[in-house]
Specification:
45% helix; binds 3-methylbut-3-enyl trihydrogen diphosphate; 16% strand; binds magnesium ion
Length: 224
């Protein structure tokens, strides 16, 4: 049975779900957030140490302003309502990405990171304003400037994912088979599951099925 320390998820399909079921993409984002909460609780049950959630990509800025504002409002409300509960559950929050949002959201995110920084049960990485190519380019620039030796360890230390092990498992919902600029470097040896269901329809049963399948995969890492 493979150990599972880190799950990464591309939570795709909210917009399509919203249009189909409620005639609005934003309703899909709202429904998607409920699923996030359930998946987090299930992650704790499985004693997984890290979960990385693709929440907003650098490319998502190309969406209509109304949708972007709604997504950030959802996140703000979530933090306002749930941060203390998250802290009580010994969960650590870390943002992967540059905090270039409203003053209010930037400070809420900083507060969440600071409050939960010592927590040890589960680390939730929110990939927010995250893009893998920019992350890699910045790491190269910073490594060069530091005059440190160019090796894997030093390079990893300049990524947003510094000190976080690479994902063992990547799940993408929404019936699309691409990475969309997510963790291109870190996913080098992850097991990848593409799920047909849209994110708001994904449930803990589906999640457990994937986890169990993952556990029985023969992971070679180049060996036989
Ligand atoms: C993913 O769902 C969530 C975010 C990008 C925030 P989408 O909004 O991309 O949903 P679809 O793919 O358009 O259905
Ligand atoms: C990836 O989904 C980003 C998030 C889930 C936050 P997208 O819906 O933005 O990906 P593309 O544009 O279809 O590749
Ligand atoms: Mg999408």
């Amino acid at each position: 049975m493979n150990p599972l320390d880190h799950v990464a998820i591309i939570m795709d399909g909210n917009g399509r779900w919203g249009l189909k079921n409620k005639k609005s993409r934003n309703a899909g984002h709202k429904a998607g957030l409920n699923v996030v909460e359930k998946i987090i609780q299930e992650t704790i049950k499985h004693e997984i140490k890290y979960i990385t959630l693709y929440t907003f990509s650098t490319e998502n800025w190309k969406r209509p302003k109304k949708e972007i504002l709604y997504l950030f409002k959802l996140l703000e409300n979530f933090l306002t309502l749930k941060l203390l509960k998250i802290h009580e559950q010994n969960i650590k929050i870390k943002v992967l990405g540059k905090k270039s949002f409203s003053k209010r959201l930037n400070s809420q995110l900083k507060k969440a990171e600071k409050l939960t920084s010592k927590n040890t049960k589960l680390q939730i990485n929110l990939a927010l304003n995250y893009g893998s190519k920019t992350e890699i380019l910045n790491a190269i620039k910073r490594l060069k400037k530091s005059n440190k030796k160019i090796n894997l360890e030093n390079f990893n230390n300049f990524l947003f994912t510094k000190n976080i092990p690479d994902p063992d498992l990547l799940i993408r919902t929404g019936n699309t088979m691409r990475l969309s600029n997510f963790l291109l470097w870190q996913l080098a040896y992850s097991e990848i599951f593409f799920i047909k269901k849209l994110w708001p329809d994904f449930n803990t049963k589906d999640y457990v099925k994937v986890i169990n399948k993952f556990k029985n995969i023969k992971r070679n890492f180049g060996k036989i």
